[in-house]
Amino acid sequence: MPDRGLPAAGEGRRSDPPGAGGAALYEDIATHWSASFRVLLPQHPGFDASDDPEWLERVEDLAYFYLELLDQLSAGPVCVVGHSLGGWIAAELAIRNPRALISVVRLSALYLHFGPFSKIAAANLERHIGAQLSGWQLPASQQPMADSDRAAAFGEA
Questions:
Q1: How far apart, in whole angstroms, are the C-alpha atoms of residue 86 and residue 120?
Q2: 40 to each of 31, 65, 70, 87, 121, how far by Cα in Å?
Q3: With the CA atoms of 57, 60, 64 and 70 taken in that order, what torsion angle do they form, in degrees rounded to the nearest 10?
Q4: Percent of the chain at pLDDT above 70?
Q5: Per the domain annotation, does 63 fall within a domain?
Q6: 31 assigned to some structural domain
Q7: What's the domain count of the chain?
Q8: Cis peptide leading into 98, omega within 30 of 0?
Q9: Cβ(18)–Cβ(42) below 8 Å
Q10: CATH no. for residue 53?
Q11: Around Cβ 60, how many Cβ atoms within 10 Å?
Q12: Which of 18, 93, 117, 156 gives a 20 to 30 Å CA spacing to 111?
């Protein structure tokens, strides 16, 4: 059973599923995943019954909070699964520190449905499962970024 705080359940690579509805909503799926993965099920600061921290003003603040948490845990690269607001936070994590993540799964994610992140997501889709799925191809607007464009988007140029 995954812990809603720390320590985590399971062994192996970690999957962190942030979401806006409170960590308790995701306990069943997290329990299932913990048979194969180490799962953390954090509760966002300022959500559910927790007090609003003074530093929490924007979604980006939550992303920095989680990046710091991953660093403190010496977690290494992780797979992040985020639903709704958690999908937005997952995208913000990827934008701010792509090296901290193995992959990002966004389910019914809020915001960030445009711009460089959509092209990065398309590049990951192409890399992992190919651009064609039963005859489907990525639209021209979603074609993967060139390596030089990706480096520029992440400030690695």
A1: 18
A2: 10, 15, 11, 16, 23
A3: 120
A4: 54
A5: yes
A6: yes
A7: 1
A8: no
A9: yes
A10: 3.40.50.1820
A11: 13
A12: 156
For residue 80, list its beta bridge partners. Answer: 16, 104
Whether residue 60 lies inside any domain: the answer is yes
What is the residue range of 109's domain? 14-113
CA distance 98 to 129: 20
Sheet architecture: strand order including 101-107: 38-39, 14-16, 78-83, 101-107
Is 44 domain-assigned? yes
Classify 125 as helix, strand or coil: helix
Size (the chain), residues: 157
Identify the pLDDT of residue 44: 82
- Under 8 Å CB-to-CB from 2, ≥6 apart: which residues? 8, 9, 10, 27, 30, 31, 33, 34, 39, 40, 41
Q: Residue 64 burial by CB count (10 A; 0-12/13-18/19+): exposed, middle or buried?
A: middle
Kindly indicate the confidence band of residue 43, based on its pLDDT and cuts at 50, 70 and 90. confident
153 is written with which tokens? Answer: 């988007």
DSSP bridge partners of 101: 78
pTM: 0.58
pLDDT one-digit tens code per residue, 17-40:
444 456 677 788 888 888 888 888
